[in-house]
Amino acid sequence: MKLRPLVIAMAWVLLTAIPSHAQDTRTAARELVKKWQAAIVNVRVVVKMRMSMAGREMQSSDDTIEAVGTVIDPGGLTVVSLGSINPGAMMTKLMGAGAAGGQGVDIASEPTDVKIRLSDGREIQATIALRDEDLNLAFIRPTTAPDTAFVAINLADAALPAMLDEVVVLGRLGRVGGWVPAAALREIGGIVSKPRTFFVLSGETAGVGTPAFLPNGKIVGILTLRQIANDRPSAFAAMNGPEGLGLLSVILPAADVLDIAKQATEKK
Q: Distance from first CA to last CA of the chain, Å, rounded?
């Protein structure tokens, strides 16, 4: 009987500690938004799209695409998902080359105009400095050196999460959302180790081109899409979600992004 008060006290500690931890995480997430919101930018791209079948051009158009990117260097170097600003190759894989009655469908795209929209509303002309099709990343930079340094996330200040660790995913809404910063608390739902390390978020598919942090402020990496060729396209593939189409939203570790970014800097 004497143990009853002790058991009650321990239960009370456990019950009150859980909400406290959740509140601490949310407070840390809000601080991350305040600190890095200016480093999350909108990217507007004019893309020339061409669709052909069996080598014959069927349609051509100029389209404007809006994406989100992350500034990773004070000079304005920004990383985005390649598929978000140059979607031709990804769309061709999704449609399944050769699926239309043996007639190969090919969608080609090429960005013709690139602008970075900063958090204060200024638009800066930019150019694509480097593309990595395997990792679905593109690096863009201002065409002229900025007058003042950009707010830039330090990819070297990184850490690797474990399964079910919480992460803070930053983002920015587009025109409809008034360009305001956005954020979400997510969990690491899977860790891919081969052919290279990727972290997979649990739940619904997240956006791309934006950073994910641990609540302690260490960056985990940049969100992008991993895609494999859909060799056996099916009308029912989409019923299995993005993976049925050969797509998976992943976090590429910050160290890997940094290695590729150095190549973009060297090509300057």
A: 75
Side chain identity at residue 105, one-letter code:
V
Question: What CA–CA distance (Å, rounded) separates 230 from 211?
Answer: 28
Type of residue at 188: I
Q: What share of the chain is helix, strand, coil (3-state, %, to 5)?
A: 25, 40, 35
| Longest Cα separation, the chain | 86
Among 157, 138, 171, 167, residue whose Cα is nearest residue 255: 157
For residue 67, give the nearest of 42, 47, 49, 103 by alpha carbon: 42
Torsion (CA) 189, 193, 197, 198 in degrees, nearest 10: -30
Give the SS3 label for residue 216.
coil
78-110 pLDDT tens trace: 999 998 888 766 666 666 544 544 456 777 777
Tokens 């994910």 found at: 212
How far apart (Å, rounded) are the C-alpha atoms in residues 207 and 29? Answer: 17
